[in-house]
Specification:
The protein contains 11 helices and 4 strands. The relative contact order is 0.10. Strands 2-3-1-4 form a 4-stranded antiparallel β-sheet, sandwiched between helices. Helix 3 runs antiparallel to helix 4 and helix 5 packs across helix 7. About 5% of the residues have low confidence. The radius of gyration is 28 Å and the shape is globular. It folds into 2 domains: about 170 residues, Alpha-Beta Plaits (2-Layer Sandwich); about 60 residues. The termini are far apart. The longest helix is centred in the last third of the chain and has 24 residues. It has about 300 residues and is an alpha+beta fold.
């Protein structure tokens, strides 16, 4: 009886892989994994030194700068940290939800890390927040030639015009433009910039204005080409909406001294509705300003305005 049972079971054990076979399979998998990792392209580290264009965005593209005090504090800290890390600032622009810097440095990561860490601490303390303020990692692009470097500065100075915030670069207060040729400038005491590169290319403000105008014209031409080549059914976007910084001015009146982040649910929804009625802001703009979900804003406005 036992002999018959053994004869039936023994062939089953023969089908199981032996220990040696298991080891060989594991070794083959490890070898294959190493071969694939060696053949895969290696991620390059961030370039730390040189002429660099740095772009810093708000987390989830949220609006960062709610008033002038926020912008002034950023400029102050930018000046302080640039001195600590021997970093030269050639151009900058502070927008509602992002910042562009053109710098010369030898340690861009440490410069930006220290700048954002200190500013985030100040900002969260001011508004009683604990959220992540900036998107990480930040972007940086090395400008290897004077041509790239010049185009980068023109791009930075033309940012407010391209965003339809103003019609000329000189009209925007929160960029380095007015630090270049205007002796009287309200933000000069908060930050220092090196103008030697710009002065080596443009001896007068008029020459700089012509260069910026030409850059804006080429930018609009490229945008027009992209629009005409967009596939049928692509979502329509318009720049005719009110700029975010103007919406923030209306919001300040609505809040009447209250902390936006301290509002309860009812007060928040009332503010959203009032802001929509006063400015006609898009759902997306309101979501960015209040740092709320798009669908939540859409639902609030649908319940109260329809």
């Amino acid at each position: 009886m036992l002999t018959e049972i053994a004869a039936q079971i023994f062939p089953l054990f023969q089908t199981f892989p032996t220990f040696e076979k298991i080891v060989r399979k594991m070794e083959a998998r490890e070898t294959k994994s190493k071969r694939e990792s060696n053949s895969a392209p290696q991620r390059q580290g961030r370039i730390q030194s040189g002429n660099l264009h740095v772009c810093i965005r708000g987390n989830c593209r949220k609006v960062i700068f709610l008033d002038n005090e926020d912008k002034i504090e950023f400029l102050k800290r930018c000046k302080k940290v640039s001195e600590q890390f021997d970093t030269i600032i050639e151009a900058f622009v502070i927008m509602d939800n992002h910042i562009h810097l053109q710098i010369i440095t030898s340690c861009v990561t440490e410069f930006v890390r220290r700048l954002l860490h200190g500013y985030s601490y100040w900002y969260n303390k001011k508004y009683s927040l604990s959220d992540k303020l900036f998107r990480t990692p930040f972007k940086s692009f090395c400008k290897y030639s004077d041509e790239w470097r010049l185009n980068s500065i023109l791009y930075i100075l033309s940012n407010p015009v391209n965003a339809d915030i103003c019609s000329r670069a000189e009209e925007y207060e929160w960029s380095s433009y007015n630090l270049m040729y205007h002796q009287k400038c309200s933000i000069r005491k908060y930050i220092d910039i090196d103008t030697s590169f710009i002065y080596s290319h443009f001896t007068t403000r008029k020459e700089l204005d012509l260069a910026i105008a030409g850059f804006i014209k080429s930018h609009k031409a490229e945008s027009a080409i992209k629009k005409t080549s967009a596939p049928a059914g692509a979502p329509f976007t318009s720049r005719s909406r009110m700029p975010t910084h103007e919406i923030l001015t209306h919001l300040k009146k609505i809040l009447d001294g209250r902390n936006m982040y301290a509002l309860d649910k009812v007060e928040l929804e009332q503010c959203i509705v009032k802001l929509k009625r006063a400015t006609g802001a898009t759902h997306y703009q309101i979501a960015q300003i209040f740092n709320e979900n798009y669908e939540y804003v859409r639902g609030v406005l649908r319940r109260n305005l329809c």
